[in-house]
Design a protein that fits this description.
By secondary structure, this protein is mainly α. 53% of the residues lie in helices and 0% in strands.
Length: 198
């Protein structure tokens, strides 16, 4: 049985005991490798990202690379809750306020999209909006919500092989000017997602 001291030491470690990976200059210089992600990044793409986008009928190679890169950057495929006191959840680290805004302000304009999102969830059909906690365990839904977030942006997606364009797009429309992320810090993740690294 774990002691309180053990729990305190493990508080910010993943299920394998690994400490958080900090995005810094070394990450930018050497690029990301498969071993630096908590899950197999290729399997996550194949079994989570691609099926989610296909179910929404919003798949393109550019969209897949952008959504995949977003998960790589946001959580390193390690965390389903934001470290520290932040509210973000799921592998795409979407905040509950953003999740609610998408459901209230964007999704209702697209009834077919809304119906498919509802079919992806496990929430009570009597509720108007799924709980954001759905994104913690239901990764197909989390990937779909990330794609919807980008789908509602009026600007065209970057080209499928434009890692820098995707890092800038992520910073502008997902992380936002209020977020702590940077284009330089995101770039290696989008290079990996675009097949430039790894």
């Amino acid at each position: 049985m774990s002691t309180p001291e053990d729990m305190a030491q493990c508080e910010h470690r993943d299920c394998f005991g690994n400490p958080p990976i900090a995005a810094g200059r070394d990450e930018i210089r050497r690029g990301m490798t498969m071993s630096e992600y908590g899950l197999d990044a290729h399997q996550f793409r194949e079994h989570v990202v691609r099926p989610a986008l296909q179910r929404l009928a919003l798949w393109s190679q550019a969209a897949e690379n952008l959504v995949h890169g977003t998960a790589l950057k946001e959580s390193n495929l390690r965390y389903v809750r934001q470290l520290g006191s932040g509210p973000a959840v799921g592998p795409f680290q979407m905040e509950p306020e953003t999740h609610l805004s998408l459901w209230v302000n964007g999704i209702p304009r697209y009834p077919v999209l809304r119906a498919e999102l509802v079919n992806m969830t496990t929430f009570s059909r009597g509720a108007d909006v799924p709980s954001p906690s759905e994104m913690i365990a239901n990764w197909i839904y989390a990937a779909a919500m990330c794609r919807v977030h980008y789908y509602l942006v009026p600007k065209r997606l970057p080209a499928a092989d434009d890692a820098l364009g995707m890092a800038k797009y992520w910073k502008t429309y997902y992380n936002s000017v209020m977020g702590k992320g940077t284009v330089d810090g995101a770039l290696p993740h989008f290079q990996f997602a675009c097949g430039v690294l790894g």
